[in-house]
Amino acid sequence: MASLLTPYLSFDGNARQALEFYKEVFGGELRLTTYGDFGRAGADNTDKIMHGMLASTAGFTFMGADMPPGMGYAPGNNFAVCVSGEDGSALRGYWEKLSGGGSVAVPLEKQMWGDVFGMCTDRFGVPWMVNINQPGG
Predict the structure, then answer these.
(1) I want to staple 49 with a disulfide (CB 3.0 to 4.6 A). Which of 7, 15, 85, 86 is the partner?
(2) Residue 92 burial (CB count, 10 A)
(3) What CATH number did the domain enclosing 34 receive?
(4) Quick one: DSSP state of residue 28?
(5) Residue 94 lies in a domain
(6) Residue 127 pairs with which residues in a beta bridge?
(7) Parallel, antiparallel, or unpaired for β 127-132 and 61-66?
(8) Residues with Cβ < 8 Å from 40, sequence gap 6 or more?
(9) Strands, sheet with 61-66, edge to edge from the N-terminal-most edge strand
(10) Are 115 and 65 in a shared domain?
(11) Which residues constitute the domain of residue 112?
(12) Is the distance from CB of 2 to CB of 85 less than 8 angstroms?
């Protein structure tokens, strides 16, 4: 599988509605996972979307989620560019270059869903997510 470059949108508690709307617009398959599905439920986020992905019938993909607890939503911080795939060596190389001179929000390491994942903002202020898919995931 080749690496993919995908927009990742963040929402202020209405990710489910937004992603369902985009499915109506673009068609395709929508997969949604809540914070509660991963045992990260809190008083107000059990049914909020931790990760959603729409693979459209036209062949493009985008992802989205509700802002994580503790991170404020503000216009301008509601997107990231996600680079993902199975080529760990190439993706780690992208990570090193993108995070160099920038800031790391989530270190590139194995996550609870099994993939290796990290979040950073590059030196130009662009937010990035790098996800190394693990076999069987």
Answers:
(1) 15
(2) 15
(3) 3.10.180.10
(4) S
(5) no
(6) 121
(7) unpaired
(8) 50
(9) 29-34, 49-55, 61-66, 4-11, 79-85, 127-132, 116-121, 103-110
(10) no
(11) 100-127
(12) yes
Element (H, E) at 97: helix 88-99
| Residue where the block lists tokens 């991170």 | 71
Classify residue 128 as exposed, middle or buried by CB count within 10 Å of its CB (0-12, 13-18, 19+): buried
Residue 137: pLDDT over 60: no
Residue 48 dihedral angles phi and psi, to the nearest 5° = -75, 155
How far does Cα 78 stand from its chain's mean position?
11
Q: Residue 137 domain-assigned?
A: no
Rg of the chain's alpha carbons, rounded to an integer?
15
In a domain? residue 42: yes
Q: How far apart are CA 106 and CA 121, in angstroms?
A: 10
Is 27 contained in some domain?
yes
Distance CA 82, CA 37 (A): 22
How many domains, in total, are found in the chain? 2
Q: What is the distance, to the nearest Å, from the Cα of residue 113 to the centroid of all Cα atoms in its chain?
A: 12
Strands (E), 1-137: 4-11, 29-34, 49-55, 61-66, 79-85, 103-110, 116-121, 127-132
Q: Tell me the per-residue pLDDT of 55-101, one tens digit each, with 9 for 90 and over.
A: 988 788 989 999 877 777 776 677 888 988 999 998 999 999 999 99
The answer to whether 81 and 129 are in contact (CB under 8 A) is yes
